[in-house]
Design brief:
Elements: E1 4-6, E2 9-11, H1 13-55, E3 58-63, H2 75-78, H3 83-105, E4 110-115, E5 131-134, E6 152-158, E7 180-183, E8 186-188, H4 190-200, E9 205-211, H5 212-222, E10 227-236, E11 239-242, H6 245-261, E12 275-281, E13 292-298
Parallel strand pairs: 3-4, 3-6, 4-5, 6-9, 9-10
Antiparallel strand pairs: 1-2, 7-8, 7-12, 10-11, 12-13
Helix pairs in contact: 3-6
C-alpha cells in the first residue's frame, strides 16, 4: 500500500480518515458539553433570586416587661430609671437576646424589635447585631413598622389579661385604668389584641413567652401550633415561682428555633368584621371606684386600638 506523509509522519490513508472522523466527534462532544454547562449556568442564575426570596424571613418582635424572666413586682415595671426598673430592663434584654439568637439559628434573615412596654426598656449597649430596635415615644403607630412584608410575629414578655388569678402582674393595657376589652363579645387581653393587629396583614404569631398563665392564654386564642415558653409560674398578682435565668434563656433560644419551623403551621388570628369593641374602665384615684364602659364598631383590625382614643365619660 502506498504511503504518504501527513504532519511529518507516514500514516495509512484509512488511519488519516479515521483520525479525522474521531476529531470531529470529539469536537462535537466538547461543544455539546460546553453548551450544556452554559444552559445549566443560565438556569442557576435565574433561580438564585427566587430562591433567595423564598429563604428570606422577616420577624417582628413585640416586647413587654411583665412576662420577662425574674419580673414579678409592679415596682420593677413602673418606676422608670430606678434601680429595680433598670435591672428588670437588663433582664428583658437577656430574654430578648436568647430569642433573637434562636430566631437567627432557625432561619430569620431580618428582625425588628418593637419596645412595647409603655415606659420603654431597650438598653442600647445590650442590643444584638443585625437587629433593628424601635423605641421611644411618641411614634407614628402602636405597632409601627408592622406590615405585609413581615412573615411572623413574636410576643416576648407577655402577660395574662386582667382578672387572671394566677397571672403575674395581670392587666390589659393599663393597670391604672383597670381596662378590660371585649371584641365581638369575647374578652381579650394584649396577647389577642396584638395577634388581631397582625392578622389584618395575614401574619401569624409563632411564639409567645411569659408566665404559665400568659402561655395558656396564647394557646387558647391562637391554638396549639403557636410555640409558648413559660419563664415563671404565677401564684398571685405579685407572687411567682421564678425559674433560673440559665434555664429560661436556654428554653427561649430553643423555643425561638422551634417557632421558625412553625411559621407554615400557625394561622393568623382574625375575627369577623366590622367588629364591636367594648371597653370597661375605672377613673384613676376615684374613691369609691365606679366601673364605666364605652362601646364602638370599627371596620377592620387597623382600628384595633382606636377605642383608647375615644372620649371616656366620667359620670
Amino acid at each position: 500500500m502506498r504511503l504518504k506523509k501527513y504532519s511529518g509522519n507516514p500514516v495509512n490513508d484509512a488511519e488519516i480518515k479515521g483520525s479525522s472522523c474521531l476529531g470531529k466527534k470529539h469536537r462535537l462532544k466538547r461543544n455539546s458539553n460546553t453548551f450544556g454547562r452554559l444552559i445549566f449556568a443560565i438556569v442557576l442564575i435565574l433561580l438564585i433570586p427566587s430562591t433567595s426570596a423564598f429563604a428570606r424571613k422577616k420577624i417582628y418582635i413585640v416586647t413587654d416587661m411583665e412576662g420577662i424572666s425574674g419580673v414579678f413586682r409592679w415596682q420593677q415595671t413602673k418606676t422608670k430609671d430606678s434601680p429595680l426598673y433598670d435591672k428588670a430592663s437588663e433582664y428583658l434584654m437577656g430574654d430578648l437576646s436568647a430569642v433573637v439568637r434562636g430566631l437567627k439559628e432557625g432561619g430569620a434573615t431580618e428582625i425588628i424589635v418593637l419596645d412595647g412596654h409603655g415606659y420603654q426598656n431597650v438598653v442600647p449597649h445590650l442590643m444584638e447585631s443585625g437587629v433593628k430596635y424601635i423605641t421611644g415615644t411618641p411614634r407614628p403607630g402602636s405597632l409601627y413598622a408592622l406590615d405585609e412584608t413581615v412573615d411572623a410575629v413574636v410576643q416576648l414578655g407577655a402577660h395574662a389579661m386582667k382578672g387572671t388569678p394566677d397571672g403575674v402582674l395581670n392587666h390589659t393595657m393599663s393597670s391604672t385604668w383597670k381596662y378590660r376589652f371585649w371584641y365581638n363579645g369575647v374578652e381579650t387581653g394584649e396577647i389577642g389584641i396584638v395577634s388581631l393587629a397582625a392578622g389584618y396583614y395575614e401574619i401569624p404569631v409563632i411564639l409567645v413567652t411569659g408566665d404559665k398563665a400568659a402561655c395558656r392564654e396564647a394557646n387558647h386564642f391562637l391554638g396549639d401550633q403557636v410555640v409558648t415558653v413559660p419563664v415563671k409560674e404565677g401564684l398571685a398578682t405579685e407572687a411567682a415561682i421564678l425559674y433560673p435565668f440559665e434555664e429560661t434563656r436556654q428554653a427561649l433560644y430553643e423555643g425561638a428555633k422551634k417557632a421558625m419551623a412553625a411559621i407554615g403551621k400557625c394561622k393568623p388570628y382574625k375575627i369577623a368584621i366590622p367588629f364591636n369593641v367594648k371597653l370597661e374602665y375605672v377613673t384613676p384615684d376615684e374613691n369609691p371606684e365606679k366601673i364605666r364602659s364605652i362601646e364602638h364598631t370599627y371596620p377592620d383590625a387597623r382600628h384595633i386600638y382606636d377605642i383608647l382614643r375615644e372620649e371616656k365619660p366620667k359620670n
